[in-house]
Amino acid sequence: MTKKDIAELKRRLKKEGCTFTKLRGCYVDSQKNSILHIDETFLNLDEEEFFKYLEIAKKTLSGTIGNQLLELSFQPGEEGTEKQNFLLGLRDSRLKSDGLLERFYELVIEQYDYAGNYLILLFHDAYDVITKTSDNAKLDESEEVYEYILCAICPVELSKAALGYRKDENRIGPRIRDWIVMPPENGFLFPAFSSRSSDIHAICYYTKDTKDVRTGFIEDGLGCEPRRTAAQEKKAFRSILESVIAPQIEEAEDAILDIQQNLSDMVDEHKTVFETEPVLLTSTALREAIAESDLQLPEEVISKVEAACAEEFGEQLPLAENLFDAKTLAARAEAKRGQALQKEVLALREQLAAEDSSAGNTPAGEIIVKVSGEKVPEIKTEVINGRKCLIIPLEEDEQTIINGNAAEF
After folding, report:
1. What are phi and psi for residue 182, nearest 5 degrees?
2. N or C: which end of the chain has fewer CB within 10 A?
3. Residue 92 — very low, low, confident or very high, per pLDDT cuts 50/70/90?
4. What is the pLDDT of residues 164-196, one digit of tens each?
């Protein structure tokens, strides 16, 4: 899935464009008890409810692809196929099968590890995908009908204790606390929407917390192979660099930032040619990024980093763009520019001072007198008209030069 695919779906989640047919749901308490079920025709909802549920649906499709939004494949084998077929059946039922929905709620309750109350919501939609030409002009006929379900799992939290106006008693008193549905923590879109078409072999998984994607729910609940978010990949890669490079050189932080900067440059160069094709952290890309570091690392260190990355990431090679922090690199580049400017200013000052010295010029507030050794005892100071003056006796054959120019008296 790409940004364009996600954006195309999200653009439809408006009052005039939304075509959700059904809304189903289950409210679960902290003891994993099913408290109530929701069964609504979405377009018949009251306006306030309509927009609140629409906000939840939009949030489940929000974030960066590869970080909050992960494209997951089903596990190979019987278990993955079974979960895939179950989700296909749930979609094809258009959320009208109470039996399938009950099984789905039980599956989530069993596999979703959450301590508090939460709400499971399911939306069904059938999107008539309009054909587009190469210049993105829309045609009347459709390419296919993309039918999907969107699931959102939202925490339900008790509102905070506070004072409020009690109209029935005409006084300020304790506010009534109630349970509030919060934005979703996790969710998924099935099938995935890839290149404007249905991909029944993948799920688009949403996670609010990019450091904890709930791997257990992904594997056992959805039957998918988990993958790291960009934040997790970045943390793992930096950990590898720190553990291997830090014991070898004192300037480890500079070496790590050099490597990350080289990866950033590699991504930028690649985009100018291939635009959307990503750069993976292959062995070749990794070695190139390390080799171009200002601090030359020995082959032994490069080999250790390469082996550690292969062990950590395996066949799921991370995207190079996930392995550096653009803001940190920009701040470092700015700091380097500042240091270079300071060096230039210092060098310029030294150059000007040298030129002034050779020309006989002196900084403001300083008077430098160069005389022969025998003349020094004759020099004295004297107050004349209230001002301190330097008295230097001159002979007829002696010449005076002030700031490079001959002076006449």
Report:
1. -95, 170
2. C
3. very high
4. 888 888 889 888 888 999 999 999 999 999 888
Measured between alpha carbons, how far is 75 from 222 in angstroms, rounded to an integer?
A: 9
> DSSP code of 212?
-
Percentage of the chain with pLDDT > 90? 44
List the single range of 34-38, 197-201, 246-250 with lowest mean pLDDT. Answer: 246-250
Q: How many CB atoms lie within 10 A of CB 105?
A: 19
138 and 132 in contact (C-beta within 8 Å)? yes
Nearest to 295 by CA among 237, 247, 250, 263: 250
Residue type for position 197: S
Average pLDDT over residues 146-153: 96
**Closest C-alpha among 26, 21, 218, 23 to residue 120:** 26
CB neighbour list of residue 243: distance below 8 Å, 6 or more residues apart: 308
pLDDT in the model for residue 409: 61
* Ramachandran assignment for 296, one of left (phi > 0), alpha (psi -120 to 50 degrees), beta (any other): beta
Residue type at 63? G
Q: Which residues pair with 117 in a beta bridge?
A: 156
> What is the total residue count of the chain?
409
Residues 6+ apart with CB under 8 A from 378: 392, 393
Q: Residue 90, exposed/middle/buried by CB under 10 A (0-12, 13-18, 19+)?
A: buried
Across 38-62, average pLDDT: 94
Widest pairwise Cα distance in the chain: 121
Burial string for 107-120 (b: 16+ CB within 10 Å, else e) reads bbbeebebeebbbb
- Strands (E) in 191-279, as ranges, are 192-194, 197-199, 202-207
Distances 211 to 67, 74, 177 between C-alpha atoms, Å: 9, 22, 31
